[in-house]
Amino acid sequence: MIHTELRGVHAGYGREDVLKGVDAHIPQGVITALVGANGAGKSTLLAVLAGTLKPRGGEIVRASRAGPAFVVQRSAVPDTLPLTVRDAVAMGRWAHRGPWRPLDRRDHAIVDRALDRVGIVDLSGRQLGEVSGGQRQRALIAQGLAQEADLLLLDEPSAGLDRQAREHIARVIAELRGETTIVHATHFPDESAGADHLLTLDEGRVVESVPNAHRGR
Question: Rounded mean pLDDT of 64-88?
Answer without folding.
Answer: 80
